[in-house]
Specification:
alpha+beta; Glutaredoxin; four-stranded mixed β-sheet; two-stranded antiparallel sheet; 6 strands; 52% helix; Glutathione_S-Trfase_N; Glutathione-S-Trfase_C-like
């Protein structure tokens, strides 16, 4: 843990004495890229629980995620990876749970109630295995080949949004009555999908939720620069497709 000096003024009758106190602060290293949704979800969650991240940029194009020192931390060499005073955890949704359970001032982002927690977990798995997977299947080929995925991949995207639209029927948040890490994770995914000109208006519940989530999620503004850099990657490939 990194000690951080903080001074407190203490008054004794007519005299004032300044006392220096050492307070241990979290030493959190985040190995990340600013543009992908999983990294942005971690940044927003850290903001929500009030912890500072020592952000360490990795560039996969330069093979930085394959260097021995990083492989020692994470043999799967996935991004993002969090190191908390020697403890290493990767996979963004696992990181979100860890951050709120260890550093959250309360349990609002990830309630301890088993049923509420189970619903949040389900939405997190939906985000990873259905929503994000559908996005990657259809849109990531654009980055590699200049062409979108096939018709089956597009159907997966539509089906995923129809499901999310159903989840949000009559609901302000994706997993209950308040903002949770499920909203934060899915917000990061939807923001990525929207920047490739996906029409959210066809899914009114999703569009309404997305507009609100951007307003109420701590750290949203902190991720915009990374999000825009993601947009530039896709925009650079669109002329080739057209």
């Amino acid at each position: 843990m990194k000690p951080v000096a903080v001074f407190i003024s203490v008054h004794f009758s007519t005299q004032q004495q300044t006392v220096w106190v050492l307070i241990a602060m979290p030493n959190l290293d985040l190995y990340y890229m600013p543009s992908p949704g999983p990294s942005r979800a971690v940044v927003m969650t850290a903001k929500a629980v009030g912890v500072e991240l020592n952000k360490k940029l990795l560039n996969p194009k330069l093979g930085e995620h394959l260097k021995p020192e990083f492989l020692k931390l994470n043999p799967q060499h996935t991004i993002p990876t969090l190191v908390d005073d020697g403890f290493v955890i990767w996979e963004s949704r696992a990181i979100l749970i860890y951050l709120v359970e260890k550093y959250g001032k309360d349990d609002s982002l990830y309630p301890k109630d088993p049923q509420k927690q189970a619903l949040i977990n389900q939405r997190l798995y939906f985000d990873m295995n259905t929503l994000y997977d559908a996005f990657a299947s259809y849109y990531y080929p654009l980055l590699r080949t200049g062409s979108y995925g096939d018709a089956a991949a597009w159907t997966k995207v539509q089906n995923a949004f129809e499901l999310l639209n159903t989840f949000l029927e009559g609901q302000e948040y994706v997993a209950g009555s308040q903002l949770t890490i499920a909203d934060i994770s899915i917000l990061a995914t939807i923001a990525t999908i929207e920047l490739v000109d996906f029409d959210l208006t066809k899914y009114p519940n999703v569009a309404k939720w997305y507009a609100n989530a951007k307003k109420v999620t701590p750290g949203w503004e902190d991720t915009l620069e990374g999000l825009l850099s993601r947009k530039h990657l896709f925009d650079a490939k669109k002329p080739e497709f057209k």
